[in-house]
Amino acid sequence: PKMYRIGMISFEDTFVPIDSVYDVARACWEKADELQVRMFMGGYAASRRTMVLFPGMVVDERDPQEISRVKRAKSEIIRITASHGGGISAIGIDKTEYLHEYSHRLKIMGEIKACFDPMNIMNRGKLGLCRGG
C-alpha cells in the first residue's frame, strides 16, 4: 500500500545490539499500541553485533492529538532503544531534546569531531561538542 496516501510518515533511525532486537521491537510495538499510533518497522543487520531498526509512524498532520501521540511515541522509542544499549543515528539539532539519553556518548562524539575538525570551524557550537562554542 502507498503509505503516503494515509498520512505523513515519520521515521526514527535506531540501532540496537543484535541480541536485543526482539525485546526492542516488541517494546516499540507495545508502546505504539498503547499510544494508538500507526507504526510499521523495517531494518537490517548492520554488523554481526548490531541491527538497524526503522520504526516508522504514520501521522495525520491535521490532527494535533495524533501529532502529540507520535511525538511521545518517538520519545519512548528513543528511551527504549537507549535502555537496551542502542542509540539513534544522526543526533542533530532536531534531536537535541533526546541528548540526555546519550550524554555518556557526547564526550566521544566531541573527540571524534576534533579529529576531523581540529580548528573547530565546522558546525561551531552545535550540540555543545565544540571547544569555545
Give the topology.
Blueprint: E1 8-11, E2 14-17, H1 21-35, E3 38-45, E4 50-59, H2 64-83, E5 87-88, H3 103-116
Antiparallel strand pairs: 1-4, 2-4, 2-5, 3-4
Helix pairs in contact: 1-2
CATH architecture of the largest domain: 3-Layer(aba) Sandwich
- Which sequence of SSEs, written as H and E, runs from N to C? EEHEEHEH
**What is the count of β-strands?**
5
The number of distinct helices, counting runs of at least 4 residues, comes to 3
The CATH first-level class of the largest domain comes to Alpha Beta
- CATH superfamily of the largest domain, by name, is FAD-linked oxidases, C-terminal domain
- Indicate the low-confidence ranges by residue numbers: none
Instruction: Give the overall silhouette.
Output: globular
Structural class: alpha+beta
Question: What fraction strand?
Answer: 15-25%
Radius of gyration: 17 Å
Largest sheet: 5 strands, antiparallel
CATH fold topology of the largest domain: Vanillyl-alcohol Oxidase, Chain A, domain 3
Report how far the terminal alpha carbons are from each other: 47 Å
What level of helicity do the residues show?
A: 25-40%
Return the average pLDDT rounded to an integer: 82
